[in-house]
């Protein structure tokens, strides 16, 4: 994949909002995702060092914002609102069942995707975009280096792994926010944990991990594609970064809707009151 072939100077695919341009970009992202998966699963697996470097980088810059955001959303919009409503009926013990849906199904994966896209995704897009505008990617291709295997594969795999790992931290931070809500209402923690664990299922936890892995692969693919196709100097890289985040957020919402509908349709037990 050439970073700047067949495009006029100063042009950029991120600026093409016509239907044909949107479909072309979507097809390019799907093609890049397929190439990364195919080449990443075939030997030789020589991208190990870059994979580890990307894992460490994403963990270092994204962990604290993720935990802080998960705790804040769990304690504030979710916990305080739900506790005020349930307190009207004297059913604060049902808060555990609410948090199964709020944290495990929705908030933890969504917060993970938003934070990773906004922090690690932008860094990936800016890095590859800077290389693209300096024609480093074209130079690597001339030297016979497989750019997809060398640069895209480790980033896609690393972000997918990081998202699954971050989902655990988001769940823990969300439960910590719930505990603080219960204590703030001077209620015992026993009934909360009882309803929480009675309502939670291993299927919901597994679905949360799968959803986060899909989010991670999508975010890395979008950011790599936008970065590798950035043109127009530093301004073009900035536009690519901004629009990669917007696309990642929109795709996260679409994936969440489709995934949740399929999950509930194929597992009706998750819609039952427990």
Task: Write the SSE topology.
Blueprint: H1 19-41, H2 48-88, H3 95-133, H4 136-142, H5 147-184, H6 189-199, H7 202-228, H8 233-266
Helix pairs in contact: 1-5, 1-7, 2-3, 2-5, 3-5, 3-6, 3-7, 3-8, 5-7, 7-8
Put the structure in a nutshell.
The chain is an all-alpha fold. It contains eight helices and no strands.
Explain the overall architecture.
The protein is built from eight helices and no strands. With 274 residues, the chain is mostly helical. It has one domain (49-263). Helix 1 (19-41) packs across helix 5 (147-184) and helix 7 (202-228) runs antiparallel to helix 8 (233-266). The longest helix is centred in the first third of the chain and has 41 residues, at 48-88.
Residue fraction in strands: under 5%
Number of domains: 1
Q: Unreliable runs, pLDDT <50, ≥5 residues?
A: 1-15
Give the end-to-end Cα distance, rounded to a whole number of Å. Answer: 51 Å
Average pLDDT: 86
Number of strands: 0
Radius of gyration, in Å, reads 21 Å
> What is the ordering of alpha helices and beta strands?
HHHHHHHH
Given helix and strand content, the structural type is mainly alpha
The main pleated sheet reads as:
none
* Helix segment tally: 8
Specify the overall morphology: elongated
In which range does the helix fraction lie? over 70%
């Amino acid at each position: 994949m050439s970073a700047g072939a067949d495009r006029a100077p100063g042009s950029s695919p991120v600026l093409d909002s016509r239907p044909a341009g949107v479909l072309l970009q979507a097809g390019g992202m799907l093609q890049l995702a397929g190439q990364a998966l195919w080449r990443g699963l075939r030997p030789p697996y020589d991208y190990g060092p870059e994979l580890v470097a990307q894992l460490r980088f994403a963990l270092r810059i994204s962990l604290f914002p993720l935990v802080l955001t998960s705790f804040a959303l769990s304690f504030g919009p979710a916990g305080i609102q739900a506790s005020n409503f349930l307190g009207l009926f004297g059913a604060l013990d049902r808060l555990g069942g609410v948090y199964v849906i709020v944290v495990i199904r929705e908030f933890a994966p969504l917060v993970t995707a938003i934070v990773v896209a906004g922090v690690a995704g932008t860094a990936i897009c800016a890095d590859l975009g800077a290389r693209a505008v300096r024609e480093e990617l074209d130079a690597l291709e001339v030297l016979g280096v497989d750019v997809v295997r060398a640069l895209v594969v480790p980033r896609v795999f690393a972000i997918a792994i990081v998202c699954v790992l971050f989902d655990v931290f988001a769940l823990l931070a969300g439960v910590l926010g719930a505990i603080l809500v219960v204590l703030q209402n001077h209620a015992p923690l026993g009934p909360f944990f009882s309803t929480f664990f009675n309502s939670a299922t291993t299927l919901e936890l597994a679905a949360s991990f799968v959803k986060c892995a899909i989010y991670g692969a999508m975010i890395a693919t979008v950011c790599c594609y936008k970065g590798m196709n950035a043109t127009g100097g530093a301004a073009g890289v900035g536009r690519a970064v901004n629009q990669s985040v917007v696309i990642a957020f929109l795709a996260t919402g679409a994936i969440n809707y489709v995934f949740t509908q399929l999950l509930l349709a194929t597992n009706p037990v998750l819609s039952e009151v427990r």
